[in-house]
Amino acid sequence: MCGIVGYIGKRNATPIIVEGLKRLEYRGYDSAGLAINKDGKLHIYKAVGKITDLERSLPEPNVTFSNIGIGHTRWATHGKPNKTNAHPHTGQYGKIALVHNGIIENYKQLRQKLTTEGHQFNTETDTEVLAHLVEYFIEKEQDFTSGVQKALKLVEGTFGIAVIHTDYPENIVAARKGSPLILGIGNEEFFITSDVAAIIIHTKKVIYLKDGEVVNLNHEKFEITTLDNEAVKAKISEVDWDVSSIEKGDYEHFMLKEIYEQVTSVENAFRGRLMNKLSTARLGGLNITGNELRKVKKIQIIGCGTSWHAALIGKNMIESLARIPVEVEYASEYRYRNPIIPEDTLVFVISQSGETADTLAALREAQARGAKVLGITNVVGSTIARESDGGVYIHAGAEIGVASTKAFTSQVTVLCLLALILGRMKHLSAQYGIKFLKEIKRIPQKIEKVLNLNEEIERIAATIKDSKNALYLGRGMHYPVALEGALKLKEISYIHAEGYPAAEMKHGPIALIDEKMPVVAIALKDAIYDKIISNLQEVKARNGHIIAIATEGDENIKDLAEHVIYIPETMDIFQPLLSVVPLQLLAYHVAHLRGFNVDQPRNLAKSVTVE
Ligand code: F6R
User: Fold this and answer.
1) How many whole angstroms separate alpha carbon 171 and alpha carbon 8?
2) Domain count of the chain?
3) Residues 168 and 39 placed together within one structural domain of the fold
4) Cα–Cα distance, 328 to 334 (Å, whole number)
5) Active-site hit among 2, 46, 406, 416
6) Domain membership flag for residue 447
7) Looking at the structure, do residues 227 and 292 belong to the same domain, yes or no?
8) Is the peptide bond before 342 cis (omega within 30 degrees of 0)?
9) pLDDT tens digits for 32-69?
């Protein structure tokens, strides 16, 4: 949620940190700060608001020139977003600066203990307590690394931290537990970050630190240890994201760019995974044998937000193609219930970031109960990717816009493949497999066709931009798409929107319908087309303002809907991949026309690494 960037090397750290923080702004954007170690002194700069506010508040470059520094962009958890609460925080003796992602659960007890030792605090934040604790132990141990190790052993909660200290002017120490931290390896320089997006313009060589690891860096070398000071031999990985994936290019917003990227990101999700000879697909990383898969009697898919919506679509696909019962669970509920995981159940966790705290906790809960848990993630090396027993990358590339778009369609694509694999292992015919494989290859160009409707969708958006509420209706597989459309609209335009199974409308929400209520209906030609048409007649009878997503060639729907957005015909299983695109564009344009920052909606952060 927050972002960390640290630099040590021969260049000026400040512009590298500021640039890195800008790339992480999508993770948190209420305040920011940086600290450099210069001439044996710490210089700390902080600002409320955007990174540009921090940048503007910095003194002349020669004042901030230093080869070592750390920075942070914040999304407030403890304490208001103001300058005092912004990171870096310092300790009692003013010797350290510390930036922190995560939450220290026992900070009140630690604060009490430190207070009895004479420590005085300037804020109510957990991070300031952590800074005091770390500084206290460095002083006690007379060693940077072991001071950090000793302090962190007392901490309950999650952390990714980076620390600089006046007594160790050539070192940064960083550590993680439950919050991502990555070491970037350059040429006589190192970077520390919570997200590779901050550093890939400098290096693609990285080490994903593991929980409980501490790294001490100077500009020549790094040393990784555990909290118990055991040496760690870490694996260097190569980031496969392109620099262009973290740039906006010619687009006004990342969200729009990512909506357009779906033509290629969907293809990347199935490329190399189709097995024409056997009329099925292959998901290499699942780490499960065909025999084991054949024995699966039940599937649980766990996720949050948009990923949860993708899971609901996955349920529909797997149940209809493979006849295996699927339960979809909110990770936040699953982890605190007493979930039942019958024998022969396969659990999937689904997460774009691979860092969502609730999903990670659900994964651990399911594993603790003996289940095999597979991950469907986007971010390579993320905690969920590493901790699951196997899994699939969706290969969507960096998703920077806070509202998830291309990750959703890539998740759905992977779930389509999974449904096909499971189906073909049971009773799905080879003919269906052949048809599936032929059609999935056409989906990218069909998405492109939908994207060509952008201007028309913008005009429709203008007709609903001043609405206070909106209702999204769909049946079957289109119901989760309706949920996703409503989520997109509410999170970036702040219009209250609800997704509903179309037929449920008459059991309550129909009372809300009047001439001011836009009703977005996914009314595609499929087995239940007639049913949704009846539901729309009910809406029309109450003067609702209908916007229909319909199948090309469906002229009748024009009698009901004020606006019709036509999408190409496809097999039922692929319809969500097309129908969600106009809903993404609709939400984008409504928010844009209302004048909101589409990429950084208020109160939201890209990856929710706290409960
Ligand atoms: C909505 C959105 C969120 C995420 C949710 C889970 O546009 O992006 O609802 O889908 O926070 O995030 P991941 O998939 O990273 O676990």
Assistant:
1) 8
2) 3
3) yes
4) 10
5) 2
6) no
7) no
8) no
9) 999 999 988 999 999 998 899 999 999 888 888 999 99
In angstroms, the CA 362 to CA 332 distance is 7
Asked if residue 165 and residue 53 are part of one domain, the reply reads yes
pLDDT on residue 243: 79
Say whether both 461 and 556 belong to one domain: yes
| Whether 148 and 273 share a structural domain | no
> Are residue 229 and residue 254 in the same domain, yes or no?
no
- 606 catalytic residue (yes or no): yes
pLDDT band at 610 (very low <50, low <70, confident <90, very high): low
Residue 76 pLDDT more than 80? Answer: no
If one compares 568 and 31, the residue with the highest pLDDT of the two is 568
Ligand 1 within 6 A of CB of 306: yes
User: In this structure, is residue 24 part of a structural domain?
Assistant: yes
Same domain, 234 and 262: no
Task: Tell me the torsion sign for CA atoms 254, 259, 263, 267.
Answer: positive
> Rg of the Cα trace of the chain?
25
What are the two backbone dihedrals, phi and then psi, of residue 568, each rounded to the nearest 5 degrees?
Answer: -65, 155
- For 484-510, what is each residue's pLDDT tens digit? 999 999 999 999 999 999 888 888 888
Does any ligand 1 atom lie closer than 6 A to the CB of residue 179?
no
Identify the band that residue 78 occupies on the pLDDT scale cut at 50, 70 and 90: low
- Encode pLDDT of 517-531 as tens digits: 999 999 999 888 988
Q: Which of 243, 277, 308 is the last residue of a domain?
A: 243
404 lies in some domain = yes
Whether ligand 1 lies within 6 angstroms of the CB of 404 is answered as yes
Q: Which domain holds residue 302?
A: 248-441
C-beta atoms surrounding 298 within 10 Å:
16
Q: Is the pLDDT of residue 603 over 80?
A: no
Pocket test for ligand 1, best of 309, 352, 363, 491 (most atoms within 8 A of CB): 352
Does the CB atom of residue 345 touch ligand 1 within 6 A?
A: no
Query: pLDDT class for 28, splitting at 50, 70, 90?
Result: low
Name the residue with tokens 């289940």. 371
Q: What is the mean pLDDT of residues 438-459?
A: 98
Active site residue 449: no
Whether 305 lines ligand 1, by a CB cut-off of 6 Å, is: yes
Q: Which is it for strands 3-8 and 190-193: parallel, antiparallel or unpaired?
A: antiparallel
Give, as one character, the DSSP assignment of residue 203. Answer: -
> What is the Å distance from ligand 1's center to 354 Cα?
10
- Distance between CA atoms of residues 368 and 378, nearest Å: 24
pLDDT of residue 106: 96
Rounded to two decimals, what is the model's pTM?
0.88
Whether residues 305 and 379 fall in one domain: yes
Choosing from 218, 243, 268, the residue where a domain stops is 243
Residue 603 lies in a domain: yes
